[in-house]
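FAQ: What does the model actually see?

It sees only this:
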Amino acid sequence: MPAIFLYNSTYDYALKIPKTYKAYSSEKTPLLILCHGYSSTITSSKWGSSDDMITLVNTFADNGYAVMDVGQVTTADWCNPNLIKKYVNAIKHITSN
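And it is asked to produce this:
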């Protein structure tokens, strides 16, 4: 089974789940949180504006990590409390589902 790509528009985050993930298992899957933002382009084969990002995401997913980042991040958002809240809400949603 290949890694699973998910996009959640309600919380505006992307998540790549490794193929080793087992739902309803007591085994934990480490979560890598990218603090990069992926602008407006997010698909299973494109993660943001840089081709290097999807390579990085795939490398971690291939090695057992779930990888997430939030969307629509600009330089104006850096260190903004609303951006921090966006990450916190996404992480809470991921870890509770």
